[in-house]
Amino acid sequence: METIVEVNGLERTFGQNRAVDGMTFHVKQGEVFGLLGPNGAGKTTTVRLLNGILPPSGGTARVFGFDPATDGQKIRQQTGVLTESPALYERLSARENLEFFGTLAGIPENTLGQRVLDILKFFGLQERVDDKVETYSKGMKQRLALARALVHEPPLLFLDEPTSGLDPEAAQQVNELIAGLNERSGQTIILATHNLLEAQRLCDRVAVLNKGRILAMGSLTELTSKLWPTMWVDITFWQVPSESAWGAVKGQRGVRQVTGQGEAWQVQVESAEVIPQIVQQLAGQGASILKVIPRDYTLEDIYFALQAGEK
Amino acid sequence: MNWRSIWAIAKKDLKEVRQNKAAWGPGIVVPLVFAIIMPMMFIILPQVIPVEDVQRELGDLDVMLRAMPPALQALFEGKSLEQMFVLYMAGFMLAPLFLIMPLMFSSVIGSDSFVGERERKTMEALLYAPTSDMELFLGKVLAAVIPAIGLSWITYVVYIIVVNVASYPLFGEIWFPLPTWYPLMLWMTPALAVLGISATVLISSRVRTFMEAYQMSASLVVLVLALVAGQISGVLFLGVGTTLVIGSIIWLVDAALIYLSVKKFKRSALVAKL
Q1: Total structural domains within chain A
Q2: Which of A29, A109, A137, B78 is deepest in the core (most CB within 10 A)?
Q3: ipTM above 0.90, yes or no
């Protein structure tokens, strides 16, 4: 897959504040890449730097091979940005909003009208095309803002806190639309968010940020194995197993330690491959196993472990 | 330069201004007062109230009018006292007042376009659009300048019609506009419209709300009021030559302000204000 975003040692300072402090990351075509961090971590500043609306203080960036600091306009022709607040013209209708941004993006006059109607239909707003945006609900405004970011079919989409301020139902709708975009058209997405569940659900890889720096980067599996080289398995028995079963598991290759008592054991293993071997051992010892549950780490566990390490 | 984008920005801004009553309100009231109510008062009154009564109230009109600059004296030649009064009021005294219009319209629309966009939190999406800073700037300037000049010219046309129709019984001919009005309408009015918007762009970088920008740029009207005072007191006579010279000075100031505005109107500066 082609790399479309290359960031090397990117920096941006505002006075004494280092909003972006030496970030380095690459994003490949078709990837959903998350910038995950608390408020003030530098997510929005990074989006602005990559679109060339803010010059960097140091480092380099390339988007589609162009330098945002000098060729921002060429980059913005190929990107769509969903800003944190919908930033819609509330006194204008949905159609007028999209026609305006479609014109700026260079959609030809003869196809613009149909393109706008198609995308409004895709986002379920076809019944309200000529209503003023100020009459829309928050969820509808967010869908319209997403439609605006996509009206010119950009190959790279930046989403800055796409579900911020939405109720759970509207947030789920927006997340489904985003997931659908990547699945259907292979759109590359850079998602800036502090919503861990959203990032876990949507992102192929994430960069966990704090105070403008990348604390860790990778897929959920990569980050988990970096942070926790071993894993824990919870085993529940129907009946308390024999002493020999305990010894057999403890002596199994790849098992670090066994804790617990009675019907509930916790086993620390070096990798998931060891789990079936443990089950075989226990079955051989005549233990009646009720449940074997490997503990999964969530992005939330990773995030808090990293942020705690930072503190 | 992508003119399709520039026009789209200008058209969008005008659509937005149309929805802001605080912005277009003066655009209706001021022309109505200047083009219809004031000339009707000055033209119809002397035709209804005998000049003798006016003289008794205002002092010796004849002496005042005879003290006017020679260029105006030439126009008074062979005219009755009533005609001289109407000629003085409608053709001379009100002239600089009209210059308030281009200045006011362009600064009001400019305030809505430049500061209002930021106030309504719509600026960020616009900054992410694939336009250059110059295209964004020109679109917004045109959104203010074109209606400011257009509205001023429409007001002039209405004024010309009202003055000629209302004073026809007195003059028996179409006498207005006087030659002094042409440079005022065609040279100084566009210059002041550009002055209004260029000053507003500079002001907009220092204020947070539409009303603040509106009030600060409205203070430019003092410049025009100085011309009005000069004309009424007889210190200044806005003849063809004087108007062309003052207009040229305003155009030079415009060029300097536009240069500064273009330098200030950068995405990186605008995004820092969000």
Answers
A1: 2
A2: A29
A3: no
